[in-house]
Amino acid sequence: MDLGIKGRTALVCAASKGLGKGCALSLAKEGVGLVITARGREALEATAAEIRRLTGVRVTAVAGDITTAEGRAAALAACPNPDILINNAGGPPPGDFRSWTREDWLKALDGNMLTPIELIKATVDGMIARKFGRIVNITSGAVKMPIPELGLSNGARTGLTGFVAGIARQTVQHNVTINGLLPGPFDTDRLRGNLAFNAQKLGKTPAELATVRAQANPAKRFGTVEEFGDACAFLCGANAGFITGQNLLMDGGAFPGTL
């Protein structure tokens, strides 16, 4: 399926590995030029080289922390007028809410709520002027079904979701859509870290707990980054202009609701 976005430009955050990398690669396969960001320069440059080799598209790597003003400024200097913005950042660590300080909460809000809002603010008016824009916020299945040990993430990402619900209805008349992509259990470093955290509490090995968790999912497995990336690319497609303010849950059927 031709998504009609060949020649467009995308800014993809936290794209050196995991879900961000999956989104970047799927967009590149559609002929989208990329500016990708991440904190680790070595992994980021390796990902950029891999995507260039596989797709032949232009890929610019900008190392930096997107959750800081400096990191955002560097990314936007390299990509001041993206047609597509993929907001993504590593989630806060798991833990018990009783131990979290105000600083912990502010860091979570900076990374998973305020940074996406700042990037939307910096790019959305240009998209409106050009009559094309696709913004996808990678959040979490915890927005629909909170995970107790991920309270920092639950709070910050739900705040972003509420904010987007309002502005997505204002931009769509200009062919600028804003949607959320909510991952459940995908085979990423983030998942493996959470498994290790819970395995220690339960007296199991991470591998044992991974098997149990995968089998407990209706799909009987974890998702792949390729599946996630392709869903992201679809939301960014030219024919997806009637989809906005939505939150696409990708969790293998784990959420037991009808809505």
Structural class of the secondary elements?
alpha/beta
**CA-to-CA gap between the ends?**
28 Å
Q: What low-confidence regions span 5 or more consecutive residues with pLDDT below 50?
A: none
Number of strands: 7
The largest sheet is: 7 strands, parallel
Nearest-integer average pLDDT: 94
Q: What order do the SSEs take from the amino end to the carboxyl end, as H and E?
A: EHEHEHEHEHEHHHE
Report the radius of gyration as a whole number of Å.
18 Å
Folded structure, characterized:
- With 259 residues, the chain is of the alpha/beta class.
- It has helices at residues 18-29, 41-55, 69-78, 102-130, 151-171, 189-202, 206-216, 225-235, and strands at residues 9-12, 33-38, 59-63, 84-87, 133-138, 176-183, 247-250.
- It is built from eight helices and seven strands.
- Helix 1 packs across helix 8 (225-235) and helix 4 runs parallel beside helix 5.
- The model has no long low-confidence stretch (mean pLDDT 94).
What is the compact description of this entry?
The protein has 259 residues and is of the alpha/beta class. The protein has helices at 18-29, 41-55, 69-78, 102-130, 151-171, 189-202, 206-216, 225-235; strands spanning 9-12, 33-38, 59-63, 84-87, 133-138, 176-183, 247-250.
Write the SSE topology.
Elements: E1 9-12, H1 18-29, E2 33-38, H2 41-55, E3 59-63, H3 69-78, E4 84-87, H4 102-130, E5 133-138, H5 151-171, E6 176-183, H6 189-202, H7 206-216, H8 225-235, E7 247-250
Parallel strand pairs: 1-2, 1-4, 2-3, 4-5, 5-6, 6-7
